[in-house]
Amino acid sequence: MTGATWLALAGLGAFHGLNPAMGWLFAVGRGLQERSRRMLVTSLLPIALGHLASVGLVAALVSATRSVVASTTVAVVGGLLLVGFGLWQLLSRQHFRWAGMRPSNAQLAGWSFLMSSAHGAGLMLLPVLLAEPVAAGGHGGHGGHAGQLSAAPVGALPGLAAAGVHTVAMFGVALAAAVAVYEVLGVGVLRRAWFNVDRLWAGVLVVAGVITVVAAVT
Amino acid sequence: MSRWTPDPSFYPSPRDAARAPAEKLAYVAAFDRSAARPDAIAVLDTDPASPGYGRVVGWTDLPHTGDELHHFGWNACSSALCPTAPHPHVERRYLIVPGLRSSRVHVYDTQPDPRAPRLVKVIGPEELARRAGYSRPHTVHCGPDGIYLSALGGADGAEGPGGIAILDHTSFDVRRAWEADRGPQFLAYDFWWHYNHDVLVTSEWGTPSMIEDGIVGELLLGRKYGHAIHFWDLARRRHVQRVDLGDAYQMPLELRPAHDPTKTYGFVGVVISVEDLSASIWLWHRDGDAWAVTKVIDIPAEPADPADLPDLLKPFGAVPPLVTDIDLSVDDKHLYVSCWGTGELRQYDVSDPFHPVQTGSVRLGGIVRRTPHPGFPDEPLAGGPQMVEISRDGRRVYVSNSLYGSWDDQFYPDGVGAWLAKLDVDPDAGGLTPDPRFFPRGDEFRGLRVHQTRLQGGDASSDSYCFP
Question: Which chain B residues have a beta carbon less than 8 Å from that of A194?
């Protein structure tokens, strides 16, 4: 992958990390409740893990699928999915609740997985993943049809690497935001600084979807 | 309609809420006991700088008659900031207004004109019955994942069990009954939670037939009204523990948990002891792995000449205090206790919740005393301080005087009237002073009785906070 790709993945990770709904606010709440910075930091680990699982699943699927199916099809289908999901996010406001306020680490990772998946965090990476040339062993005019299926597991690897980089950036930014609010700013800052990320988020999904489709058919 | 920035009336912590600007308006549930005219939401001007201060400045009639408005609440509150399912860009805007007698639930929009709430939805009793299996809706609390609504009765004429229904945040449709496993719980009334601890608490009044035609003496002396509170797992929706106060302590009603989300204690008021007609306040708290209650305040009955008493009380020769509402300030420092029978509002410093210290008292009305408002000494008052609401900063307390239609008639048979007083508080030293400029009463309420007050932007009994 190119430097620009890594940068884009990390940038999206930072964007996800910054969103209070993706987990750092939960970590701050747990830290304040127990009066423990350690609780804050240790809460972020399962949250990052859940995010990684959600994003990694999508990324691995995309790269694995691309290695066996014509990339245009993947891009168009993926892009349309993205637009639809973004619009659904814009128009619906579902509030789910799961495992309560005192989850175990496993439940916290599950919460983060559900929260990230429900927000379409992995889907947002589609245009970046699809902009990449297909990994060796993929299609490309030469090579037959047989043999490509066996390339699928290997094809998933770039996706997992992408998810990893993305999640490291997400974790770093979430940690910085959580510590800043916990140590310096106080939760009162939420009242002023918490602009409607969900709307922006949904908008990014739609735009990412359109870019993917346009890039695929032109 | 979602906002770009959080609703300015949402606060992460009780401390932030206590610093909030003062309320400019108050909403009051008003009802027609005869059920001949519609009940109404009255709007009071609470801005001392306004020419309408202390007056009814808005009035919205309900669409039907015979609802008997009682308690009501906001669609959203500070719990929207809670981190499991944050949605701070919704608006505190709609009032969820149940009819306790009709089982209809009304949704009023306080925008664009906060003085003229507009009806946007009516949920019929059949929807509440079909979807949740309940009737006689009562307490409303804005939860992070939906609107919680308690109900006293069962569906299709069943006496019970009462319980909690969940309403959709956005559409206000009734989704389902909240309970996954109610254990031994049957009677219902109030509820609230220790949100950060995944704990919900419920209290007990009686079934519809035990209350709707007035208090039933035989049932009371037979100790048949509620006398326990219940603790639940809020995340799993399961009953955890029933704590019995003892069957002499009839009717534990209002539940006031500490606002500080790290704390796990709260207060519940008991209307009457059948042994000596006293009223009491109990503290619930953790005791090892279980919940326990401790009686922390006892308020004795006042001896009276039977000739001055309504028929119901003549045999006893005493006025019971009848603690029918209590309220805890947002900073968890002051507890206010309404003695609706003796006509007194008491203020306690509960900084040490196990050892309350009385710091103030105001006498208004009362079955025997009929104490007038100090600003209007020529007007003896019927009813007594009943529903109490406290401003977020703890400096203003509002009390209204009606309990419940048929019960008003039993304890104040010559008429309970309608009045709503405001008391000023010194939050540091304690003490209560009636405000002579703020006393809407009688005709201002157009012949209706007044029950719960809700303050614009939230109050001490509307919001829960997820950050200490």
Answer: 5-6, 88
